[in-house]
Amino acid sequence: MSGGVLLMDVGNSRLKWRLAHQAAGVLRGVSSHDTTPAATMAKLKEAWQGLPRPRQAWVANVAGAALQAQLEDLIRELWGLTPRFVEAEAGCCGVRGLYRQPRRLGVDRWLAMIAAFAQVEGHCLVVDCGSAVTLDLIDDQGRQRDCVILPGFTGMRRCLLEKTRLAEQDGRPRLAEDTRQAMTRGARLAIAAAVAEMRRDWRASLEGEVALLVTGGDWRELDQGRSGPAQVRPELVLDGLEIVASAKGG
Length: 250
Description:
Elements: E1 5-10, E2 14-21, E3 25-32, H1 37-48, E4 56-61, H2 65-79, E5 84-85, E6 91-92, E7 95-96, H3 107-120, E8 124-129, E9 132-138, E10 144-151, H4 153-163, H5 176-206, E11 211-215, H6 224-227, E12 231-232, H7 236-247
Parallel strand pairs: 1-4, 4-5, 8-11, 11-12
Antiparallel strand pairs: 1-2, 2-3, 6-7, 8-9, 9-10
Helix pairs in contact: 1-2, 3-7, 4-5
């Protein structure tokens, strides 16, 4: 029996998927792919063995060609389907990007903006807390007005630990716990300050409230006391992918 549409958000470190099926309900899963593409496919194959057969598969991939090729092979092996890999466009589903070369805008950011615009129907700032932290502002006409990219929380801490030798001396950890806490606080302050400043500036420029939507694996790291209250949307990219798939015949 054919199911619904299988949606996949393939990020730099994790793969999230969702399948809405009339009989089985909404099925979803998350798989890290910090090892080899073959190991990632083995984990996915085990997770997908018992799924109802989807009628279509749609993928947003920013993890590179090697993983994409193996994912395509796995989907064909399991269900005989050819997945559709989406890319950012100049405009789609009411949203128009800022980039002169649309495909240079990560497809995950593009889809998150599409979902945010559909859900908020007003000015909104989308903060995706992943390997990088991306800030994309969309006005109430669906136009991307500004964007900022920062190192992610984990990346900031790792960079400091690698570039300094504060975390370890003479083979024994000294002040490691305090140092890591200081680095974590610094990363959180830096990102929250960037979010708050961008939101404040555009609130004045657009003369209206700017909703804050946060997604990504590290969304809990965002200090909402400093950035401002946020609407948490853990599956914002998948939501956008569903909108695009539906618009394109999914």
